[in-house]
Amino acid sequence: MISSLSLRDFRNYSELNLTFKSTVNVFIGQNGEGKTNLLEAIFFISMLRSFRTSQLKDLKKIGGKGFYIKSQVNIGQAWEQLLEVEYLDKRKLRMDGAPVSKASEFIQKFKAVAFSPDDILIVSGSSGLRRRYFDMLISTLHPEYLTILSDYLTVLKTRNVMLRSNNPDLTLMDVYEAMIAEKGCTIVDYRKKACEALKNEINGLINSIKADSVKFDIDYRFHSGTNNNELFQNRLKRDREKDKLKGYTSFGPQVDDFDFLYSGKLLRHFGSTGQCRLLALCLKLGKINLISKLEEGRGEKSKIVVLVDDVTGELDQVTKDAFYRIIKCADQMFFTFTEKIDDDFIKTCRNQK
Q: What phi and psi, each to the nearest 5 degrees, are found at residue 209?
């Protein structure tokens, strides 16, 4: 699927050119040598997002003015496409050398799913990490969501600027709030559906791994009224003075949260480290299953690339076997390890493909 990757001024790489000929690819090196950065670059060429940070400035090499990523990707029917991303003073996208103006036309030539040791923070960390996880999940399943979310955040930022001004144009404020309500209701609707689908997948995954009837649930906590356009607009108008004192919009999907419940127990407060790690793994495995089912339902060939950043060493054998069984459906896999491992799954896949 991915046959080449070139980087310039990306993270710790001044310049790097790699070619890939295998379904299973392994990067081995000590911590800090840049293994994770390679996975991040592959993920970025798929989503124009990082799985590690929301700050683009973190991706450029220290002292650099920007970064550049190029990848040759097989998108089916023996047809390869050259994808290029350049971030300097502004973003430039190219496919086969031709400029692309819209991110929606560029992204997801393949579906990337990344596994990282930091995934546990989705369960135990801040609400922003959980929103980011769901937004990335939904964007992978439904590319139009990324545009809706981007539009929402742009208009939201404009309202926040107006709140901090001395004499905002209230007529213009009405216009922006109507746009915020429309986009916000759509975001909440997408998130509700994603929670239901993901909950079902994760229950199946946990029960197959643990071989018991553990009950997993997701409580999507959103403000009352954010799923109704008229109520949303009325609340924004009513909260103007309060939001003006705060300097930002305090109502809407940008402050939603998701409670993960394991046998009725809120995991981020009462779950063990082992339970949180298991759920973090299942969140990503559930994403793979949802992508596979969606593409099968559309009659499309799966185009999944799995990126595994040194997470298998902490898994017990039962969980590791289940992990390998699910990711085997991917078209291509990239692993990082700090030392050479004698792993039957990787050896078998390399011998078969």
A: -80, -45
Which SS3 state, helix, strand or coil, does residue 137 take? helix
3-class state of residue 216 by DSSP: strand
Tokens 């039957």, residue located: 344
Identify the CA nearest to 287 among candidates 313, 268, 310, 307.
307
Consecutive H or E run containing 233: helix 229-238
Separation CA 304–CA 329 (nearest Å): 8
Residues 302-321, buried b or exposed e (16+ Cβ, 10 A)? Answer: ebbbbbbbbbbeebeeebbe
Dihedral class, residue 278 (left if φ above 0, else alpha if ψ from -120 to 50, else beta): alpha
pTM over 0.90: yes
Q: Report the alpha-carbon distance of residue 234 to residue 257 in Å, rounded.
A: 22
DSSP 312: G
Retrieve residue 37's tokens: 């950065």
- Tell me which residue has tokens 């809120």: 266
Give the position of tokens 């940008």.
254
Strand duo 111-115 + 98-100: pairing: unpaired
In 3D space, the residue among 108, 129, 143, 149 whose CA is nearest the CA of residue 280 turns out to be 129
- Count CB-CB contacts under 10 A for residue 88: 13
Which runs of consecutive H residues, i.e. helices, occur in 261-316? 267-270, 273-297
Rounded to an integer, what distance in angstroms lies between the CA atom of residue 117 and that of residue 147?
29
Whether 96 and 26 have beta carbons less than 8 Å apart is answered as no
List the pLDDT tens digit at each of the 353 positions of the chain.
Answer: 899 999 999 999 999 999 999 999 999 999 999 999 999 999 999 999 999 998 999 999 999 999 999 999 987 665 789 999 999 989 999 999 999 998 888 988 899 999 999 999 999 999 999 999 999 999 999 989 999 999 999 999 999 999 999 989 999 999 999 999 999 999 999 999 999 999 999 999 998 888 777 899 999 999 999 999 999 999 999 999 999 999 999 999 999 999 999 999 999 999 999 999 999 999 999 999 999 999 888 877 778 999 999 998 888 888 999 999 999 989 999 999 988 877 778 776 654 44
